[in-house]
Amino acid sequence: MIIDTHVHIGDDRRFVLTEEMVMESMIKYNIDYSVVSNIEGVEFDGDLKEIPGRLQITQKDVFERTLRFAKKHSKYIGVMPWIKPHTETVDEDFLRLMEENQSLIHGIKLHSFHSKTAMDADCVKPYIELARKYDIPMTCHTGGCEEADPIHVYNAAKANPDVRFVMVHMGLGTDNQKAINLMEDAENLYADTTWVPMETTIKVMERYGSKRIVFGSDSPVDGMDTYYCNPKGEPSLYQDYFNKLEDIIGKVAYEDLMYRNAIKIFNISDKCE
User: Fold this and answer.
1) Which residues form the domain of 197?
2) Which residue range or ranges hold the Amidohydrolase-related domain (predicted)?
3) What stretches of 145-268 show up as alpha helix (H) in DSSP?
4) I need a surface site. Which of 63, 89, 150, 217 has the fewest CB within 10 A?
5) CATH number, position 193
6) pLDDT for res 144
7) Number of structural domains the chain divides into
């Protein structure tokens, strides 16, 4: 079994990631279940310039589109609402959607780069309270700007020891060592494999065991074949995960990484056991 905890749909003017791409990729590469967020929730562009309000899509609309996708494919797709803490907050619509769709929701997603907002910022606290209430994790992009430094996810994890936090990318564009070190002192702080070399994942497991990291990919940002290659045809690092890693770490640790940890951390046992 493979659970991908980091999959996207949406059109943010850089990427066009369709529901069909997700489903076809899952079938082609034997992905059993995906936790999906909608990139249309971006508040800042790739240059960290705030997107004009007239061009932004509301948090409610972003959430509802993801829910519609999951409802069509509930055996295979779970939801992680992409939040907009810079321009919006936990309002009545967000609360209602959370309450009415608990069986589909398996996390809350902060993109600290595209919201230019740190996980330990005051405006994120209401979302953390919902993660606590519904026993789901807060996941956070790390890397690319100060607000996305892994230290902020660590700070939030230390301040909320009963909530699970996932450092997506483990510091994108770095050697990942800072993120690895931060896990030492926060047992509720987890890593994910999105654009993380296999060798880094092995380091995490050697230091902390096999229970502190989950498989994620960002699929289908490199196209329907994200798991295999990029648009230039260059091999994806995920091929190491699929073809080499189990022989190195063993069957039990490999199954922890590829699905068992996700079942526990993202509270999806009713779908995958």
Assistant:
1) 3-272
2) 3-267
3) 150-159, 177-182, 198-208, 238-243, 245-249, 251-255, 261-265
4) 89
5) 3.20.20.140
6) 97
7) 1
